[in-house]
Amino acid sequence: MHQTHKKILLGITGGIAAYKTAELVRLLIKSGIEVQVVMTQAACQFITPVTMQALSGKPVYMDMWDNSIPNGMPHIELSRAADAIIVAPASADFLAKLVHGRADDLLSTLCLARDCPLVVAPAMNKQMWEAAATQRNIKQLRQDNVTILGPDSGEQACGEVGLGRMLETEALAILVKGFLTPKLLADKKILVTAGATIEKIDPVRGITNFSSGKMGYAIAQVAADMGAKVTLVSGVSPLDQPYGVKIVATESAEAMYQAVMTNIQQQDIFISVAAVADYSVESPSNEKIKKGESSLTLKLKRNKDILADVASLPNPPFCVGFAAESQDLIKNASQKRLSKKLPLLVANLVSESMGTDEATITLLDDTGTHALPRSDKITLAQEILTHLSHMLEK
């Protein structure tokens, strides 16, 4: 069930944003993508091939006539091994070359002779981006099935502010990974819950838990990468919003319940990852409770079971539950799956997952249990959603 290893050819053209590609290479390699760098002569004025070689772990190519490449055809050899060519930054000059099919250096020749997808991340001064010629070129590139990532708006190296700067490296890395991800969930509508809930005691205190939201956010991001239309109903979490995901912010279990029920119609899949409080304070105080006696008694009431209520709808979506147990993991998780009539349940020990970057999980479905090795949560999200997509095919 492990994800296929991906290889990209990363082209760098001449522009100040070339310095950002050093971090981009690091992020892509960290996520398991193999990167081969090709630079134009202009790019070498902004960042050195030595830097890119050190980060990518591979020789950097710049010359059409490099004798180290087999059969003297670098424009063929280099692109054939790539799952995609990514040009970042892509200068206005280079975009114009692509439109007109020019091939006067190694990178432009590679792009013309490719048999893999081409992705460009434009980067230029705002006036250059807004120029009629550039906009015509962008329109033509889209018609030629070239994927355009960005540009972003903000302060530019020239001191002006506007549209034209290259996307920040973290966003670009996420989009590149998403582009390379097989679209196993294309056109599916998925609702995910994530994070912790807070049940108010008074205006300044509440009952909560240690959930960080990392697993749910990873599920939402990977589902979007796989082509799904994702709505994330999030409780309390310090994490940044996943890219390309609609987010609905909530705090209490009741607020999360209402948000889910409001958005559940026409959803194909519901993935309940949030650590929702089982109980809330029956009568929270409108005023701060003053320190008084040595003890304080709070009366708690049972909260609604979001997953059980969604699974019990007349025409429910495909429901996936999460069970965090402190003991008897498989026994307790199996009982939960059967009692809520869930086709798929993800089980883990609380001590191994809550708030951490890695976890060990077991998938439970009608065919049995499927233990996954300890991995980071993005990898686990890929495994879970790949398993889910196979279930939907049956």
Structural description of this entry:
The chain is an alpha/beta fold and 394 residues long. It folds into 2 domains: 6-180, 3-Layer(aba) Sandwich (Rossmann fold); 189-393, Rossmann fold (3-Layer(aba) Sandwich), CATH 3.40.50. Helices cover 32% and strands 24% of the residues. The chain is built from 13 helices and 21 strands. It has helices at residues 20-30, 49-56, 74-80, 92-100, 106-112, 126-130, 132-143, 169-180, 214-225, 253-263, 306-311, 329-339, 377-393; strands at residues 6-12, 33-39, 84-90, 118-122, 147-148, 152-155, 161-165, 189-194, 199-202, 205-207, 229-234, 246-249, 269-272, 279-281, 300-302, 318-325, 344-349, 358-359, 362-365, 368-371, 375-376. The strands form 6 sheets. It has an 8-stranded mixed β-sheet, with helices on both faces. A 5-stranded parallel β-sheet has the order 2-1-3-4-5, with helices on both faces. Strand 9 (199-202) and strand 10 form a beta hairpin. Helix 1 (20-30) crosses helix 8, helix 4 packs across helix 7 (132-143) and helix 9 (214-225) crosses helix 13 (377-393). The radius of gyration is 25 Å and the shape is elongated. The protein starts with 5 loop residues before the first strand and ends with a helix.
Summary?
This protein is of the alpha/beta class.
The helical percent reads 25-40%
SS content category: alpha/beta
Separation, N- and C-terminal Cα atoms: 17 Å
* Overall tally of structural domains: 2
What is Rg? 25 Å
Q: What is the CATH architecture descriptor of the largest domain?
A: 3-Layer(aba) Sandwich
